[in-house]
Amino acid sequence: AHADDKAEAILKEARLRMSKANTYPASIRMDQDPKRQIRFYLQRPDKFRLELIEPTRTGAIVMRGAGAVMVRNGEMAPVSASTARNTIDAIYSLISANFEKAIKEPYSTTYVTQKMLDENTVVDVIEIKGQRSKSAMRLYIDNNSLLRKAITSGGGMGTVMHFTNVTIDEPIPESKFQIK
After folding, report:
1. Distances in whole angstroms, Cα of residue 176 to Cα of each of 50, 72, 83, 168, 173
2. What are the angstrom distances between the C-alpha of 110 and each of 71, 113, 131?
3. What pLDDT, on the 0 to 100 scale, is given for residue 113?
4. CA distance 144 to 12
5. CA–CA distance from 97 to each of 19, 156, 177 (Å)?
6. Which residues contact 91 (CB under 8 A, 6 or more apart)?
7. C-beta neighbour count of 3 within 10 angstroms
8. Residue 171: cis peptide before it, omega within 30 degrees of 0
9. Which terminus in the chain has less CB density within 10 A, N or C?
10. Taking the mean position of all CA atoms in its chain, how far away is CA 125?
11. DSSP output for 39-81
């Protein structure tokens, strides 16, 4: 993979930060569907909760060890461990800057610029491009090595995700991992 040294240094720091994190809760809002909110909780080694909150319905995927369940509008349904694991892997590969899993092909990294994301947050902007496909990601990483915004594109489609309420290693209540 072709690498821009500055971009790779920032990504390396983000990977290191996430590899040491024991807990990682965050919220995601997508520009394409601003009424939908996603909140996820990751606690090592084997607990994960993804909540989907929409105006007309709510849902969650909860995983503890090898067991997983999906709750939608108050009804529970089993989820295969592989489906839950794939969901976790997709989110975690993005937030941990592990693009070998996310892009699944050789890629190049380029440092784009530094900019103000909002009045309090300075971010480094990095672009990752797949070498065979038209897949690309533009990541906005803050000075704490945390992902704050991601723009993905490929095949003419794009997604803009804003990460808020991001914390690392703050306690997550056990109730978040209860299957209800």
Report:
1. 10, 15, 20, 16, 6
2. 40, 9, 13
3. 92
4. 12
5. 10, 23, 25
6. 40, 42, 50
7. 13
8. no
9. C
10. 16
11. EEEEETTTEEEEEEE-SS-EEEEEEETTEEEEEETTEEEE--H
The position carrying tokens 């089993």 is 78
Tokens of 65: 């060890």
Alpha-carbon distance 29 to 40, whole Å? 12
Express each pLDDT in 57-89 by its tens digit.
Answer: 677 767 666 666 777 666 777 777 677 667 767
- Per run of 10 residues, the mean pLDDT along the chain (length 180 residues) is 80 84 85 81 82 74 67 70 70 65 73 90 88 80 84 72 86 82
The letter for the amino acid at 105 is E
CA distance 93 to 68: 20
pLDDT at 109: 86
Q: Could you tell me the end-to-end alpha-carbon distance of the chain, in angstroms, rounded to an integer?
A: 44
